[in-house]
Amino acid sequence: MAKIMIDSVSKEFLTARKRTVALNETSLTIEDEEIVCVVGPSGCGKTTLLNLIAGFIRPSSGTIILDDREVAGPSAERAVVFQSDAVFPWLTVADNVAFGPRMQGMRGSRRAERVERYLDLVGLSDFAGTYPKELSGGMRKRVDLARAYTSGPDVLLLDEPFGALDLFTKENMWTALKRVAEAEPKTIVFVTHDIEEALFLGHRVVVMTPRPARVHSVVDVPFGADRALDLRAEPEFQALRMQIAHSLREVHDGAA
Ligand SMILES: Nc1ncnc2c1ncn2[C@@H]1O[C@H](COP(=O)(O)OP(=O)(O)O)[C@@H](O)[C@H]1O
Ligand SMILES: [Mg+2]
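^ inputs. structure came back:
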């Protein structure tokens, strides 16, 4: 069943000096509980696409339908995780994760239960009382992830969430995200410029092109749910990586 239908969406930004077409008649259908990774060169409109789905900005033309309703603004049903940490430094890990449900008016016992569940799933149970400044970058990302889940969204929108992490930490985050996503499947749109990350996590990989700013190609990822980090060494994985890298190079050289 289609969860998100992006239908011929364009987005133009007008500033005093220029007009930027950030998305040009982009169409994409995302199934319920599907993990779609979006890759593309910097400036090709990935964040714009995510912001449109989040409802932070409106399309210049075209429509985005979520569950048969047009996206008209932000909603708790869509949680967003950015590259920069969104933790409140003055709150403990548990209070950070409890923040969304508290704002939604969720009762104390139910809230505590959810906080515990997601802290456990992201591997932070032992750090519930810790303050963010005492955590590593990867752990703060885990807080972000737990927080996104605790509000009970249908859709998770992730904008290069692990882009600032070192490779080892990033790999741990892939495993953490996989674990949470398996325990509680959501529709996930994951923006990254890391092809291996996209192939490791995604059911499909969408390659974007900047000129014109739209979907260049969509790759079906043939691997099942039981992906281990070693998968990257498999010839099939590497072949797909090369294929996507080739598409991106084409896009970059303007040959697409
Ligand atoms: N608020 C804005 N005002 C003007 N131009 C913008 C704005 N947001 C994005 N753009 C432009 O739109 C294009 C796509 O940006 P973005 O979606 O951030 O790309 P990406 O996330 O793929 O790097 C870029 O050329 C960027 O400069
Ligand atoms: Mg971006």
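Strands lie at 2-14, 19-31, 35-39, 61-66, 69-70, 78-81, 155-159, 187-191, 204-210, 213-220. The chain has a mean pLDDT of 93.
thumbs up if we can close this ticket
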